[in-house]
Amino acid sequence: MSFLLRRVSITADGREIIRSSACDKNQISIGRDAACDVHLADLAVNPSHATITTNDGRHIEVQTTSGLGFEWDGRTVTSATIDAGDGAELRFGGHRITVGVDSEAPNPRILLTIARTDELSHSALDRDEAQAFSLRGLLPGRRLSAWAFSLLLLAAFLIAPIWAYMSWRGVEERPASFHADMSWSSGPLSSAHASLSRDCQSCHTDAFVAVTDTACKSCHDDAHDHAPMDRQLAARGEPGMFRAALIRIGAAFNRDQGRCVDCHNEHEGAGPMPATAQQFCTDCHQDMSSRLTDTRIGDAGDFGTSHPQFRPRVQVTPGATPRFARVTLNAQTSDVGGLKFPHNMHLQQAGGVARMARSLRMTNGRTSGLDCANCHKPTADGVRFEPVDMERDCQSCHSLSFESVGGVTRTLRHGEPGQVVADLYAYYRSTPPTRPISLGGMARRRPGEFAQGQIYNIYFRETAARPTRADDAVRAVFSRGGACYDCHTIFAPAAGNSNWRVLPVNQPMRYLEHGWFDHRPHDEEECSTCHAAARSSSANQLLIPEIKVCRDCHGGENSGADVESPCASCHEYHAGARANAPWQPARRSNGRRQEGRARRE
Amino acid sequence: MASRPKRRAAQGERQRSSLHTGFLAHASFAWLKVAILVSLTSLVSYFLVDVAPRHNGGSWYGYTLGTIGALLIVWLALLGIRKRAMTRGAWSLKAWTSAHVYLGLSLAVIGTLHSGFQLGWNVHTLSWSLMMLVIVSGIWGITVYSMLPSALSNNRDERTQAQMLDDIRGIDRQLHEAAQPLNADDAAIVRGSLDQDPFAGSTWSRLSGRYKDCATASALGAVRIHTGPRHDSGHDPMEKIDVLLTRKLAALGRLRRHLKLKALLEVWLYIHVPMTFALIAALTAHIVSVFFYW
Predict the structure, then answer these.
(1) pTM value?
(2) ipTM confidence score
(3) Taking the domains of chain A in order of start, what are their residue ranges?
(4) Minimum Cα–Cα distance from B255: chain A residue
(5) Cβ within 8 Å of residue A258, ≥6 positions away
(6) A157, A187, A276 member nearest B126 (Cβ)
(7) What's the pLDDT tens digit per position in A261-275?
């Protein structure tokens, strides 16, 4: 029994060389050792790796001798019995041994074909130099990733948002979840519109159509036009060449002038909508009279430097058919309200009024007499002050009581002269003057009892001086020295009737109807900082401060004043029939307010 | 007749100048000057132009910058097509590349001013970020192009890439031969080095030049345990293997430095080019979105 070993090797130019050698043994050895019958110069093979035994020249038994296995038809085994007639393929390291039968030999002989299949080393493998030495195999190809990224971005940021727009068209409110077109938002919406953040279509109603006023007015249905458009255009004047070009380009791109969004810029960040710049107003109002010659509105630029004097609406003629007029404010401006009231007397810190205030405990600790708050009460919102109310604000001093019945005080009815007359008539009809109790009784009166006589005298003098008739009492009340006359202008009745009339009193809560003034931000100031009440002797004197007083703190936008106040601080662009508080900027003071006050003090 | 030699001379001159000046210094930095002018003009006008309520891409000034920026991006990207045609002259590929580099840098100014520094999580800022990524990767590319070729050349030591690989193959053959007498365990050590692909390693290994799993280094370490404490006998096969592994490690080191430098020269394009296309996609979405929700 023997083996035929056939070695196949490949030359450098690719030719196969086959060398055959016979081995007349029943058992041959396989290994890296040169002494082995099958010498495999392969580091993956042990020096003495395995033996192959045959007894019949047909069947072989392969047995490892090193403990290291070998591959038999793809499986790793340590021993194998093989019918050489069926053939088999064994692998030892990088070598392949094909088992067969040498049919040409006279005696049965096992044919082992030995070939190296693997290269000596990895470096010996053929490779494309350009590929191996570049990053090409390591990173995804540039073209591939360019396509991948482009398509991904187009899908995520173009197709998906358009899809979202199409799916939610005409829907009033989208569900609170992510919508792809939110990625198109160029910035957070202002706090007023924050709830619309996911409902892009609430403003952007139609694709490729600039946000229309209709979209704004679907909620803001009470927004007034500032002025008729022709007058606005006239006030704006002819646009310059650059502006005209911008207008033309805007129109070409479907963005007309004068839309809400021209001024109300959105997507400019969370928080209040940014202030409309002063220039937006002054572009027209700065020297408007030169373009809009028939305007009655004064030219206005920066508040600190070029704003007309205030023009309060005052009552010129009081009475049943009063006449009002807007007048330019100055120190002499009067508002004939129909009341007699000397502020200076009431605010004196000494004298009768002050003494009475102290005795009634009306002083507040800081003053020794009355102060403004004793009579003037702010409105619930604190913006302005309520009209003075006689019963609440005056009567604690200016009492209208005339009788006490069983501990209950009877009071003349304020504001109802007819009732006053009627009450007095009724009183005189029913009562004599109250007789002092000490005058009655049987006690003997001795001479020299002066005190008693004094009481007596007071009583009878009183009795004597007392109007004996109701007519006199009524006249006294309405005449000089009487309770009504002190504060009101009285019209005496014609002879023969008792129709006493009182001039109606007008106490406006607001004089500046085209501007807004809010007392709240000024609550750290003393009233007297702006209102010169302590020097006013007449109620007709209008105590609204002139513009110069405001300018102590307020100046225009970027003026560096303590409080920079653009037009929108006091004026509302859309002011309609009911002028509300204008929009307020978030930052109203530039932080130097305290300093400014200290300086003034 | 007389004009012909003159033309030839002029051609020669042009050829010389185009051979000796790089694209950065092309035409005495003409495009650098243009780019500086463009950037300064944008910057100054940004501060002069009063946009209410504040600068943003949606003002007339923003749209102007945006249009310029978008056209510039498209033109810059066209270098990818233009580079396939080598020409000479005032509108040569070199001039085009020079303009590409400097105008690309000024795009950072134009694009950023266009944004009005209003950045957020949206498609608009995405476009800006991609633009900046492309520009920064371009700056990286210019930097490595001007710094690395000399290092590459020094490392090559006048050898070609194929020669570097052949060195390793030769050492491997010798290693294989020298390891024949070894026992199974020692042979396995050497085989580890032979079986490892000299080009193996992650992208990071390529870029950093650090190969933690280098089988040759660990094989040498293992062999040194054997050879280290012994005298040099001259007939211990491990001694020869020690020498061969040391040589292989040196050859690998040279190859890996070469790969690292080449990777650094190359890697920016793997960002620059795909991100350019991503930018064009994002820019398309950005522009469409602006007009869609006009």
Answers:
(1) 0.71
(2) 0.85
(3) 2-120, 155-274, 349-434+453-502
(4) A133
(5) A229, A232
(6) A157
(7) 887 888 888 888 766
